[in-house]
Design a protein that fits this description.
The chain is mostly helical and 97 residues long. The chain has helices at 2-28, 57-96. Helix 1 (2-28) runs antiparallel to helix 2 (57-96).
């Protein structure tokens, strides 16, 4: 139970670090928006949606970096959820057995 608690606390600290990176990326360009939990692929552009970085290289690369960080955040949240359920089951087994 102690190792599970330490693991969850360390994941929480990593999550806070990743959230700080997402806020940093959001502050670099207005088109990324203020959302933390959303992938930034839908924004108004003139003409067709950009598939490559031919139109606006810097923004497209920044958006791709932010999307990778958001995916990492979702992965951490999923691992935290599974770990918390495991820790909760160990906690309940300890006290009710």
């Amino acid at each position: 139970m102690l190792l599970g608690s330490i693991f969850l606390i360390s994941l929480y600290l990593i999550l806070k670090y990743v959230l700080a990176w997402i806020k940093y990326f959001n502050s670099l360009d207005k088109r990324l928006g203020d959302s933390t939990w959303r992938f930034s692929y839908d924004y108004p552009v003139l003409g067709e949606r950009d598939i490559s970085d031919l139109d606006d290289k810097n923004f497209v690369r920044l958006r791709r970096k932010k999307n990778k960080i958001v995916l990492l955040m979702y992965s951490i949240v999923l691992v935290m959820f599974i770990s918390s359920m495991s820790l909760l089951s160990k906690f309940l087994l300890f006290f009710f057995s």
